[in-house]
């Protein structure tokens, strides 16, 4: 993509009202694998953020008045352009985020799938007529776009977290201001560039990049023209933004942190459970919100599971995401590496058995060796904190009730997984887990076709499926009287 090459040599602009703005100052984006700077990006402040909100607000009336088939056709074109540039986007994503190229390609396909889905789904966004309480009255329910949406996204899925919000918002007739994570703004900007190429009108999609997120965050959460804040990120930041949104009573969607349990019952197929464990725990080097944080394994199958898991984890290839064959890339920054090491040291210090890994990898200071810890107990930090790295801590339990109690004993409730074969146990467990998403004999559950989201402190709202479209619409009740 020539525009990306150009950007990487020059300063990367932000997108405000269809114009590429270089900004007064810039900040650097690093390649986490090497620590090298790969780009300088416009550092947007409060004034430019307000301009972006104004541009989105001004573009709103024409966009919502655009017939849905036309909006859908533009989104479809955006979907096609993302697919046509999949290799370049994936490479850019690996450069700024670190994930192996094959995973980055997978994310491009996954990210694009939301655009394809919502372009179609918007055509089915129907209102209602309701039975009336008076012979001379008719009751209608109209479904209208919310208005300007602020989308604030994390670094771990630089494309998919953006399309999962923007595709339904745009499809519903909303306009958007995106605030991507400061570590990974390039993929977001490239996606927005392709949206303009596809023909989305100026102002419908804006991208503001900032090294000081609070400054633009304050604008997005307090400006009364923004009607919805859709946030994906950590629970503490989500709580802060939620409080700020209260001042103008905005609609909010909060996709926050998790502490996913992965339960393996005695009757599980141990090989299938290990396959699921590898997929759920080690994708993106363990840096996904739905990735397993705690393995809870029943006594009778414990040793077999730990042995097989350790064998598989030992064989995972660590290296630069651009190197052929790498399956575990770097962690995003030094703080992430330090947190992982702290969790491993804490567990070992309190009696956990290190089965493999446990240290920084020879590939570089940001690479952590995939790790398995056995005999982990609830006194250890991994019980309550999201590790966000390639560490598999394995707890032991005896009775089913004990596993359910441990699984639910957390303020979080995003994703949970379990492996079992007895159908009664499957139904019971599925119903007892206090989570927004449950994988049963399955470690990878994300799809644009299903509602993604959590309960408790993991968040509010759902993304994906027709529920994801509802999040960007308001219901307007109309009573037509005097008939
Ligand atoms: P983070 O909360 O630090 O940052 C997320 C975004 O918020 C970034 O764009 C950041 O710049 C911005 N931000 C931070 N402070 C802000 C402020 N005061 N005002 C406005 N914006 C602000 O999270 P992260 O480290 O980027 O991502 C990792 C976290 O995200 C993990 O906890 C993970 O579980 C969670 N996550 C959740 C989901 C989900 O769907 N539930 C998906 C991916 C990641």
From TrEMBL:
<dbReference type="InterPro" id="IPR016161">
    <property type="entry name" value="Ald_DH/histidinol_DH"/>
</dbReference>
<protein>
    <submittedName>
        <fullName>NAD-dependent succinate-semialdehyde dehydrogenase</fullName>
        <ecNumber>1.2.1.-</ecNumber>
    </submittedName>
</protein>
<dbReference type="GO" id="GO:0016491">
    <property type="term" value="F:oxidoreductase activity"/>
</dbReference>
<dbReference type="InterPro" id="IPR029510">
    <property type="entry name" value="Ald_DH_CS_GLU"/>
</dbReference>
<keyword id="KW-0560">Oxidoreductase</keyword>
<dbReference type="InterPro" id="IPR016163">
    <property type="entry name" value="Ald_DH_C"/>
</dbReference>
<dbReference type="InterPro" id="IPR050740">
    <property type="entry name" value="Aldehyde_DH_Superfamily"/>
</dbReference>
<dbReference type="InterPro" id="IPR016160">
    <property type="entry name" value="Ald_DH_CS_CYS"/>
</dbReference>
<dbReference type="InterPro" id="IPR016162">
    <property type="entry name" value="Ald_DH_N"/>
</dbReference>
<feature type="active site">
    <location>
        <position position="255"/>
    </location>
</feature>
<feature type="domain" description="Aldehyde dehydrogenase">
    <location>
        <begin position="20"/>
        <end position="478"/>
    </location>
</feature>
<dbReference type="Pfam" id="PF00171">
    <property type="entry name" value="Aldedh"/>
</dbReference>
<dbReference type="InterPro" id="IPR010102">
    <property type="entry name" value="Succ_semiAld_DH"/>
</dbReference>
<dbReference type="InterPro" id="IPR015590">
    <property type="entry name" value="Aldehyde_DH_dom"/>
</dbReference>
<comment type="similarity">
    <text>Belongs to the aldehyde dehydrogenase family.</text>
</comment>
């Amino acid at each position: 993509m020539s525009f990306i090459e150009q950007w990487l040599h020059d300063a990367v602009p932000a997108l405000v009202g269809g114009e590429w703005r270089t900004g007064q100052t810039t900040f650097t984006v690093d390649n986490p694998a090497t620590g090298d700077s790969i780009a300088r990006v416009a550092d947007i402040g409060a004034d430019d953020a307000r301009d972006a909100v104004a541009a989105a607000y001004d573009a709103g009336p024409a966009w919502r008045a655009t017939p849905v088939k036309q909006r859908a056709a533009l989104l479809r074109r955006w979907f096609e352009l993302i697919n046509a540039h999949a290799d370049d986007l994936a490479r850019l994503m690996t450069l700024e985020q670190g994930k192996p190229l094959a995973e980055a390609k997978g994310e491009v396909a996954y990210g694009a799938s939301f655009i394809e889905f919502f372009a179609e789904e918007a055509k089915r966004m129907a209102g209602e007529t309701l039975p009336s309480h008076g012979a001379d009255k008719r009751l209608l329910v109209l479904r209208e776009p919310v208005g300007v949406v602020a989308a604030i996204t994390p670094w771990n899925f630089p494309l998919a977290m953006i399309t999962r919000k923007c595709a339904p918002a745009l499809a519903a007739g909303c306009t958007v201001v995106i605030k991507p994570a400061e570590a990974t703004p390039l993929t977001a900007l490239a996606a927005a560039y392709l949206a303009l190429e596809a023909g989305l009108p100026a102002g419908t999609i804006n991208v503001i990049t900032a090294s000081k997120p609070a400054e633009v965050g304050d604008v997005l959460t307090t400006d009364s023209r923004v009607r919805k804040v859709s946030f994906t990120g950590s629970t503490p930041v989500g709580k802060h933004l939620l409080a700020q949104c209260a001042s103008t009573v905005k609609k909010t969607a909060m996709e926050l942190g998790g502490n996913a349990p992965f339960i393996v019952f005695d009757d599980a197929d141990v090989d299938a459970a290990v396959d699921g464990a590898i997929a759920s725990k080690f994708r993106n080097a363990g840096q996904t919100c739905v990735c397993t944080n705690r393995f809870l394994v029943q006594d009778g199958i414990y040793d077999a599971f730990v042995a097989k898991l350790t064998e598989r984890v030992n064989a995972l290839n660590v290296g630069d995401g651009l190197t052929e064959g790498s399956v575990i890339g770097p962690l995003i920054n030094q703080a992430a590496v330090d947190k992982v090491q702290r969790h491993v040291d804490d567990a070992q210090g309190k009696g956990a058995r290190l089965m493999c890994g446990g240290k920084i990898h020879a590939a570089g200071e940001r690479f952590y060796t995939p790790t398995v810890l056995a005999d982990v107990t609830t006194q250890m930090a991994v019980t309550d904190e999201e590790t966000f790295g390639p560490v598999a801590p394995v707890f032991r339990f005896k009775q089913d009730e004990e596993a359910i109690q441990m699984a639910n004993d957390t303020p979080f409730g995003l994703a949970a997984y379990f492996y079992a074969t007895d159908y009664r146990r499957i139904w019971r467990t599925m119903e007892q887990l206090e989570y927004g998403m449950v994988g049963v004999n399955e470690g990878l559950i994300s799809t644009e076709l299903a509602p993604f989201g959590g309960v408790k402190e993991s968040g509010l709202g759902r993304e994906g499926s027709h529920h994801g479209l509802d999040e960007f619409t308001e219901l307007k009740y109309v009573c037509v009287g005097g008939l």
